[in-house]
Amino acid sequence: MTKTYVKDYTNTFEIKGETIEVTAPARFDSKTNKIIDDMELDNRAIKMAQNKYRKKFNVIGPIDIKALRKKWNLTQKQLANVIGWSPLTITLYEVGEIPTKSNNRLLKVLIKHPQAMKDFIEESEDQEEL
Q1: 25 burial type by CB count under 10 A (0-12 exposed, 13-18 middle, 19+ buried)
Q2: Where are the domains of the chain?
Q3: What is the DSSP secondary-structure string of the chain?
Q4: How many Å apart are CA 65 and CA 83, to the nearest integer?
Q5: What pLDDT is stored for residue 1 in this prediction?
Q6: Confidence of residue 67 (pLDDT cuts 50, 70, 90)
Q7: Does domain 62-129 bear CATH number 1.10.260?
Q8: Does residue 130 carry a pLDDT above 60?
Q9: Which of 112, 98, 109, 8 is nearest to 56 (CA)?
């Protein structure tokens, strides 16, 4: 069995064309001192990079989207229907995927302006009646 150790490692990630650098714990081989894959630590580093990107560019995150749905008592599928996206898009954004610029703008408007969200819901209900 290979012996390993964990130490902080600085890595760069490319997110939406931007280079994001983060320092996070990573696993190393004790014999070679080379970095080795560790799904849990690697995913943690990716999430740190995504959060750094969100903060730098003021991008809506999973918590914001879930809060929007909760406020309006909508499932992922219902929210997708209301704003004209696929349910998969909502799911991906809620697990950490970075929204496109236009989707991010729309989410910001809907979060910041409850009347806009109410209008979207009413319009989607009207379309269901057709």
Answers
A1: middle
A2: 4-57, 62-129
A3: ---EEEEEEEEEEEETTEEEEEEEEEEEETTT--EE--HHHHHHHHHHHHHHHHHHHT---HHHHHHHHHHTT--HHHHHHHHT--HHHHHHHHTTPPPPHHHHHHHHHHHH-HHHHHHHHHHHHHHHH-
A4: 12
A5: 73
A6: very high
A7: yes
A8: no
A9: 98
